């Protein structure tokens, strides 16, 4: 078995398969995952805030930036993760498979990290296309796996920290214990003598000896298939391609290069993409009913407004993006009634949070909650118009919410009721 493992490692020898390259690629991958983790937590708590949480409403495009960054960093993880696996692949042929408890922690953490990462970025990518072929809820699993990934990553970094520190800046001569066929096409000379050898010159017991060194050196060195520069250039090209050909769904100047993104800017009713249609929400009949009213409630005080009455109130125009958790965003012009003006008509306190209720009867966001920081923001509207036209049914007719710095799923469409939570 030992002989087979050494032969496999020798056959896989490459200039890029060494601790220095593993460190270079590993720190890029770690950075991408940390960015995903931080921006993902922000998105999660925007959607499911803890009672004490308050969020900034400026800049108005904050969520557009954080979630766009989240998706792009997640996409960059694909080539970076595969590059890391390519570099460390020969370590699968280590013999014995586990050398110490620290080595066990290292191998277990990396196995957990790789497995969880592949699932995480794959279901994340599928979510951007709103395709869910897996039998578990996306949001909950995606959130839980993020902690598994970061935890296993921290364990792995902790175990490998001395090696990472040695190879962080430069490529020093490898320490004796690091020299193996995969790194240098040679085996270290280890001062240990076996008590017995087999007919092929390999030790039956004891440590690796000079005879093992002779055996490995007798294996002809394979020509390098990949240079370090070529490998890094390929990884950089891969990251640039997958990110650059997707970023256009968020970054307007790159819209023309948007090949992979599931949404295109300017494509959709009134020039704005649509995620959830009125047919999916099954709200067409209720939304188009002539007796539709928007009810605003604070405690026992309620007022109902027809669409004509809302249109007769003072109107405000704002430019705000729709920014969705799938990573796409679109700037648009909205016109409607300031939310704070509506809730003031029912005597709401400036400290009141509100619940937004849609005509939609099913779905995880048929009701959403809005903190006082958004309710009182002058840019938060009950919108009646989009891009100079009456709001299209697919965009929430007869009235919808639009607020700065909020995920698109919280910009409730087909509003029917707005009620104070703490009244």
Automatic annotation (TrEMBL):
Q: Give the record's GO biological process terms.
A: respiratory electron transport chain
Where does the Oxidoreductase molybdopterin-binding domain start and stop, copy by copy?
A: 289-422
Which InterPro entries is this protein grouped with? Di-haem_cyt_TM (IPR016174), Mopterin_OxRdtase_euk (IPR008335), OxRdtase_Mopterin-bd_dom (IPR000572), OxRdtase_Mopterin-bd_sf (IPR036374)
Presence of the UniProt keyword Cytoplasm in the record: no
In terms of Pfam families, this protein maps to: Oxidored_molyb
Q: How is this protein annotated for GO cellular component?
A: membrane
One GO term in the molecular function aspect is:
oxidoreductase activity
Annotated membrane-spanning segments are 21-45, 65-89, 110-129, 141-159
Keywords assigned by UniProt?
Membrane, Transmembrane, Transmembrane helix
Q: Does the keyword Nuclease apply?
A: no
**UniProt xrefs under PANTHER family:** BLL0505 PROTEIN (PTHR43032:SF2), PROTEIN-METHIONINE-SULFOXIDE REDUCTASE (PTHR43032)
Q: What is this protein called?
A: Molybdopterin-binding protein
Which taxonomic lineage is given here? Bacteria, Bacillati, Actinomycetota, Actinomycetes, Micrococcales
């Amino acid at each position: 078995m030992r002989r087979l493992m050494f032969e496999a490692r020798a056959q896989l020898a490459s200039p890029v398969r060494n601790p220095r390259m593993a460190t270079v690629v590993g720190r890029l991958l770690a950075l991408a995952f940390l960015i995903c983790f931080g921006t993902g937590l922000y998105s999660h708590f925007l959607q499911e805030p803890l009672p004490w949480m308050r969020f900034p409403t400026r800049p108005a495009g904050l969520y557009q930036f954080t979630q766009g960054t989240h998706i792009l960093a997640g996409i960059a993880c694909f080539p970076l993760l595969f590059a890391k696996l390519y570099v460390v692949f020969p370590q699968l042929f280590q013999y014995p498979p586990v050398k110490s408890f620290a080595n066990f922690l290292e191998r277990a953490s990396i196995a957990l990290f790789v497995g969880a990462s592949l699932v995480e970025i794959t279901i994340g990518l599928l979510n951007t296309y709103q395709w869910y072929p897996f039998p578990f809820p996306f949001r909950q699993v995606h959130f839980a796996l993020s902690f598994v990934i970061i935890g296993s990553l921290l364990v792995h970094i902790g175990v490998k920290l001395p090696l990472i520190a040695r190879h962080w800046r430069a490529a020093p001569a490898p320490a004796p214990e690091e020299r193996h066929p995969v790194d240098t096409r040679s085996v270290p000379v280890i001062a240990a003598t076996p008590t017995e050898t087999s007919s092929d010159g390999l030790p039956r017991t004891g440590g690796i000896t000079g005879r093992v060194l002779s055996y490995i050196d007798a294996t002809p060195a394979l020509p390098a298939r990949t240079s370090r520069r070529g490998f890094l250039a390929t990884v950089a090209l891969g990251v640039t391609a997958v990110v650059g050909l997707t970023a256009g769904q968020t970054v307007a100047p790159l819209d023309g290069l948007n090949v992979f993104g599931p949404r295109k800017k300017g494509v959709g009713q009134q020039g704005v993409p649509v995620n959830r249609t009125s047919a999916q929400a099954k709200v067409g009949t209720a939304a188009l009913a002539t007796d539709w009213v928007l009810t605003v409630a604070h405690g026992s005080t309620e007022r109902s407004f027809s669409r004509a009455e809302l249109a007769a109130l003072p109107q405000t125009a704002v430019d705000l993006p729709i920014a969705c958790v799938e990573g796409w965003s679109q700037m648009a012009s909205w016109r409607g009634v300031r939310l704070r003006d509506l809730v003031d008509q029912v005597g709401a306190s400036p400290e009141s949070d509100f619940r937004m209720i849609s005509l939609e009867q099913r779905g995880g966001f048929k009701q959403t909650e809005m903190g006082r920081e958004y309710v009182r923001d002058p840019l938060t509207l009950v919108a009646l118009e989009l891009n100079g036209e009456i709001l299209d049914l697919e965009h929430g007719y007869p009235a919808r919410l639009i607020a700065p710095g909020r995920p698109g799923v919280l910009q409730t469409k087909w509003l029917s009721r707005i009620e104070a939570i703490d009244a």
